[in-house]
Design a protein that fits this description.
This protein has helices at residues 26-48, 134-145, 156-165, 188-204, 226-232, 253-266, 268-271; strands at 2-7, 53-58, 76-78, 97-103, 122-127, 130-131, 149-155, 170-179, 182-185, 219-223, 238-242, 245-248. By secondary structure, it is α/β, with parallel strands linked by helices. It has a domain at 2-116 and 134-208: Rossmann fold (3-Layer(aba) Sandwich). Strands 3-2-1-4-7-8-9 form a 7-stranded mixed β-sheet, with helices on both faces. Strands 6-5-10-12-11 form a 5-stranded antiparallel β-sheet. Helix 1 packs parallel to helix 4 and helix 2 (134-145) runs antiparallel to helix 6. The longest helix has 23 residues, at 26-48.
């Protein structure tokens, strides 16, 4: 059984501040140790359920947050910030299950460090009118390749948002938000125990699980400024439906996802203008 694991970071138990998950300072180093433990817990659970190969795609910030030699189960590691499929790089139809580890709530949600890809650009993202965060958008790739998303771990908001779009997904809630920069987290050991157990259950039942029901979903975005909206339309598949509203279209979910990622990359400079 082949398993794909996409790891973010803001959803890790104990992480509540950007200094813990950006840069190379002591707080970020400590945050990476917390993340590594949760990623390894998910890997261990998947192995216990019969996984024979695990691919980890580091999907946070500059995407080099995990020490490759310390990944459990001799998992292979995709790292580095320029990836055509971004948080889902490496996934194809040879996989049997997808795991989302340390995911966070969407921009505007009552969740710690909430954002959706680029907080300077995206105000809200919706799939068929349902507000979604990064998990829902990333699930488009899984839907395209016909691979079930069986696990999400992170804050309660991220897990609930994912479950709304992917009914039956196994969720390991490791913290509850108090505010955008505060949370009530499980002890790291308990968080890892929960992730390990939930991952084992999720992977064990992957064979009977359907891919995300998003093959025909429509992705819509609200962006922060009209300049961002205009620049986004330079990308194939992006339609402007109102001054700050966009619709992403494509011949399949993968095309929609690729257009979305291209728009995020293209608008970064515009989004930073004051």
């Amino acid at each position: 059984m082949k398993v794909f694991l996409s790891s973010d970071m803001e959803g890790t138990a104990g992480i509540v501040d950007w200094d813990q998950c950006i840069g190379d300072g002591p707080q970020a180093a400590a945050g990476r140790r917390l993340l590594l433990a949760e990623v390894n817990a998910a890997i261990e659970g998947a192995l216990a359920a019969g996984a024979t190969e695990i691919v980890v795609n580091d999907s946070h910030s500059t995407m080099r947050n995990l020490p490759p030699g310390e990944l459990a189960g001799q998992a292979s590691y995709i790292s580095g910030s320029h990836k055509p499929l971004y948080m889902m790089q490496g996934l194809d139809d040879s996989f049997d299950a997808v795991l989302f580890v340390s995911y966070h709530g969407s921009i505007g949600a009552p969740a710690g460090l909430s954002h959706t890809y680029n907080p300077r650009a995206v105000v809200e993202a919706r799939l068929d009118g349902v507000v979604t965060g990064e998990a829902g958008i990333n699930a488009l790739v899984a839907a395209h390749y016909g691979v079930p998303v069986v696990l999400v771990t992170g804050d309660r908001c991220a897990c609930e948002e994912t479950a709304t779009l992917i009914p039956g997904v196994h969720a390991a809630v490791v913290k509850d938000p108090v505010s955008r920069v505060a949370a009530h987290s499980l002890h790291p050991d308990k968080a890892c125990d929960l992730i390990r157990t939930t991952a084992e259950q999720a992977v064990r039942h992957a064979a009977g699980t359907s891919p995300p029901p998003l093959a025909q979903a429509t992705l819509e975005l609200s962006v922060r400024t009209t300049d961002i909206a205009e620049a986004a339309t330079w990308v194939r598949g992006i339609e402007r439906t109102a001054p700050r509203e966009l619709r992403v279209v494509g011949e399949n979910p993968l095309a929609v996802y690729r257009s979305f990622c291209a728009a995020i990359l293209l608008t970064r400079t515009v989004a930073q203008l004051v």
